[in-house]
């Protein structure tokens, strides 16, 4: 097996910094790739949490003026991850969320902040760090989208490039005047085959246009984004580049998400002692001030509260939840109107609906271990990770038939396969309510429910095979560039 070196570029990496599924992928994939002969190092910004948690740092390079202020490139490690960290305090030394202010507004200099990250990625790709010269630069989402662009416009020999889309909704759109500040040729911003995007520029579009290979996080989503609706303005470009576009399902870290060893749940359990899930359910009901009842199906939700995630549809389905004798425990934050409406529903239905606004990693584990079913009613979902965790913990997924939800959950109507959950289409409140009723009937048929749980627990949700697909992609790319 020929060794391969890959530089991954990501704006967040679990367990150091996380706002969404991108961080989980960026944190788990490098470790899984080791078994496939791939040495991956990850470049990320030096947010305050990164500088606090990084160990054994070594200064690789220092600049007196890097995009408007002094900067350093550091190497370090954390939790088995080998990292390069771009330490530019005037760009990254800010509290809270990596992308937005405390008021939830994008940092006004986000274009410069993430252009700086992509610029150093391209430089590493061309040999800035002699001890690690990558065969491939792998850019994740719009924040890294300019890495393939810099490598392209610099000219000369370069590594192969891969661009991964985690969510088409986030495209990194800016005014074309930014080109001067980020050191790209002005004509690139006027070129439809470069950065130009409806009169401005898009970092994601640049990566999709100029990378050698494009991936996204499920086969169904790879098809959906080639449509005008699913592509969100970039469907035509993706159709034109369909020959280099592929969908590779995400996995989850099965060491972090393991109910037999999980330190965050009340009672640990495995496939042979699912009876202990009832004890976790009782603790979860207590946490959310729900009535203590093992006979009431408990629905869990761990989600950003947004239109994309379909959480308005679940609100419309609350009468069905109540009529069916179900309970709801929701953890999430996002759209202020949805937050207010869920909190109002909880006040109106004490003991039946519990809501916690925010995100709590420990509570997320308990919801997986204690809820009977996990609801993911997304209007579009590139892959989704919560339903994979649910399979691992014996919570039955109730999901819409979109993206990775379609690819990872098997409905009972799919003949010849062991069902693992319930799927609904179209993505409407009525269709969701129908799935809730189906799930409620199955819950009260204990042999059927146990079969669903065991099928889910038997599903491989790890990175083992998925990482092998990435390794094969890298090797194919390297071979094609040498041919």
From TrEMBL:
Give every Starch synthase catalytic domain span: 5-239
Domain named Glycosyl transferase family is located at 288-438
Supply the alphabetized keyword list. Glycogen biosynthesis, Glycosyltransferase, Transferase
State one Pfam family annotation: Glycos_transf_1
* Pathway membership, UniProt: Glycan biosynthesis; glycogen biosynthesis
Q: Which Gene3D superfamilies match?
A: Glycogen Phosphorylase B
Q: What is its EC number?
A: 2.4.1.21
Q: Which residues make up the binding site for ADP-alpha-D-glucose?
A: 18
Q: What does this protein do?
A: Synthesizes alpha-1,4-glucan chains using ADP-glucose.
* Family membership noted in the UniProt record: Belongs to the glycosyltransferase 1 family. Bacterial/plant glycogen synthase subfamily.
Q: What is the official name of this protein in its record?
A: Glycogen synthase
Query: Which organism is this protein's natural source?
Result: Bradyrhizobium campsiandrae
